[in-house]
Design brief:
single chain, Rossmann fold, binds flavin-adenine dinucleotide, nine-stranded mixed beta sheet
Length: about 290
């Protein structure tokens, strides 16, 4: 790869900034341009911070984008792709980002790797890393087609310090009426942003009653942290909106405290980069 063009998209500005770190890491090594796309309705105020971290920011602001539809958003991105001819497309691997990445991959008939945690440049080629075997291993992969679509797990890269003075360009796109109509949109309770806190106290199945979560909330409050759950407490019992682990949120806090968590590999995959790991458990063999 000589000159590279990298297009980044996330529906969340904080994650766009994480993508900026990766995009700029690559464009600093190979020369090239980092571009970001901001898509939605009433989003123009969000672009300033991005122009300080990307060479160019495209803004597509339209009432037709008020309700999220992955195919519509992928089609808008396709317009930007046709316009900028990127070599690499970075998308944050949120629920929405994952849906857009796969739809865009189909529209462009190109390779896409999801749940990516690291991208390395080796002899001018990208080596893309993602977890394998439930977090026991790390798969090294390559995309052989172009553009390469890489869906990056939130929290995999730090946010950059502003270094650019990028151009902001509003773009008009013909937005096709989607083939699927969204009848109603109801926001889900998201709870605390687990991957943004220095201290995370996680409740596992050892916490027997929902009311006992209050003890963990009290502990988290004293430590200036937040409370999360293992998957069974969230997915099966519905006590927390999200869970920590391989199929949930990846966290890297300074302090992780697992209360009644057995430390199954799928859970550990999401916490293994925590600085200090404390386990509170009645079974001494169930340590994390
Ligand atoms: C494809 C797949 C993806 C998955 N992804 C995730 C994921 O992202 N995150 C996740 O968490 N799980 C995930 N799981 C589930 C995972 O395999 C485990 O089932 C889960 O992590 C176990 O949760 P737990 O530790 O809360 O419960 P358990 O394994 O039941 O452990 C409960 C623990 O509490 C202890 N305990 C009991 N009573 C007390 C007490 N009074 N005081 C202190 N300790 C006590 C026990 O000794 C035990 O260690 C996934 C599974 C699959 C198949």
């Amino acid at each position: 790869m000589d000159m590279v063009t990298i297009l980044s998209y996330s529906e969340r500005i904080d994650l766009q900034l994480e993508l900026a770190t990766l995009a700029n890491e690559i464009t600093n090594k190979l020369s090239g341009n980092s571009i970001s796309a901001v898509i939605g309705y009433g989003i123009k105020d969000k672009v300033d911070v991005l122009s300080k971290n990307f060479d160019k920011v495209f803004v597509i602001d339209s009432e037709d984008l008020k309700l999220f539809n992955p195919i519509t958003y992928a089609n808008v991105l396709l317009n930007i792709v046709n316009n900028t001819k990127p070599d690499i497309i970075l998308i944050s691997d949120t629920k929405r980002g994952g849906a857009i990445a796969s739809a865009l991959s189909a529209l462009l008939d190109t390779g896409c790797i999801t749940e990516v945690t690291k991208v390395e440049l080796v002899n001018d080629d990208l080596v893309i890393y993602r977890g394998a075997y439930g977090g026991l291993g790390l798969a090294q992969t390559k995309i052989l087609t172009s553009p390469k679509i890489i869906a990056v797990k939130p929290g995999s890269y730090p946010r950059p310090t502003a270094i650019k003075n990028g151009i902001i360009e509003e773009m008009k796109v013909d937005i096709k009426k989607p083939e699927i109509e969204l009848v109603e949109f109801r926001a889900k309770e998201t709870g605390a942003r687990l991957n943004e806190s220095d201290v995370v106290v996680v409740a596992g199945r050892g916490v027997k009653k929902k009311d006992d979560l209050q003890m963990l909330e009290d502990l988290a409050k004293i430590l200036g942290g937040v409370v999360g759950c293992s998957r069974p407490l969230s997915a099966d019992l519905g006590w927390c909106p999200t869970w920590v682990g391989m199929s949930g949120v990846t966290i890297k806090p300074k302090l992780y405290i697992g209360v009644g968590v057995s430390g199954q590999i799928q859970h550990i995959a999401g916490i293994r980069d925590s600085k200090i790991i404390v386990a509170i458990n009645i079974d001494p063999t169930h340590h994390i």
